[in-house]
Write a structure and sequence with these properties.
- This protein is mostly helical.
- The chain has a single domain, classed as Orthogonal Bundle (Proton glutamate symport protein), CATH 1.10.3860.
- The chain is 79% helix and 0% strand.
- The longest helix has 38 residues.
- 47% of the residues are buried.
Length: 433
Amino acid sequence: MATAEHKDDSGGARSASKGAGVDVLPFAVIASLVLGLTSGWIMRQWPGNSWINGFVEVCDVVGTMWVNAVRMTVIPLILPLLIGSVAGARSGRALGRLGLATGAWFLGLLSVCVLAALLLAPAIYSGLKIDAATTALLRSTAATVPLPTGDASLSGWFKTLIPANPVKAAADGSMLSLVVFAVMFGLAALASPPVIRERVLMFTHTLSEIMMTVIKGVLLAAPVGVFALTLVVGDRLGGAAVSALSFQLIVASTAHICVAVILCLLGMGLGRLTPTKFLGGAAPALLVAAGTSSSLSSLPAMIEGAIDHWGLPEEVVGFVLPMAVSTFKLTAGPGQVLGALFVATLFGVHLGPAQMAIIGGYAILMNATVPGIPGGGLIAATPLFLAVGLPLEGLAILFAINPITDRFSTIGNVAADMAVTAIVGRSNPKVRP
């Protein structure tokens, strides 16, 4: 009973704190995003100016510090939330139903998005005309762009699924491994005597409340962090064959925005949330996603929005969102389809029905192996390119524009995470009206 009262009091404190001027934060972050990109593009016109270069370097440091501050809060928040959600479940069967519902929604949405990309992409890229000179220029550019590295094989994914050292997994940021550890720990607490279980629940709840307070302080600095990050992106954006790269930039970014808008509408409808209420909970996380290109960095804002704005139970939010962020990257599927079709058009490679089927199947079945880092979708696409005969230089070309497209991709992923959380959470009988 004391635990329930503590939850009500802390929830009221959170709601009261949000009324103290924090509502202007989304507008401040939007302004910072636009101002940062614009300022960076303007500064890029004077590449040799030492004062400008120094200022860009300072912004790079400030932006990196803010992203690190956000990421610093993630694991100390997620572990207690996830452990508490599992340990506080009414039964292992109820927890299994929650996991199956979450997985089913993501698999269904991913399949629809990949199928839509397969159907629309050939017509879209038929309008892209590439001459031999542009292809040669892009090939030379690709040689200078470092590719991301990592093991995206299915065997590698299974090898790292269970952490040999949970502390090292936390230090490495291996979220999926930590999720597995937290679920096992929570299940053990669920099976423990009631006295031990209550102690675990009290500790995890207290720790998560403290971390939510830390997160609020970090998010208040979001306008400064987002401005610094986007200024650096605007300053460094560029490369050869601008027209071809711009085409892909527009196509990929538009596709991710469409996915995000559709998913937000789906979350509003099936989650039974008004547009104002849905956006009030989702906007901070979406803006952090746009500024950081990281779903993981957006996770604290997602959790706060789902609990404080939407009134979803902590045990639902604390299970669904960490599982979603660590396991599902919804926009990676259609992004791999679009990337493969772009590279095929760029290098004149014909993709028949068999190759298209391989691309679609790979994008769906291997989605969980996509590393949760910037450029992770490109790492996972390496075996796909080899399987359908696409040159790996194309990955380097895609990686050159990844700092921009990855932001829109992250927005789509965060929108998917929030929408599925709203839908699954709304079906829970403990949801507050």
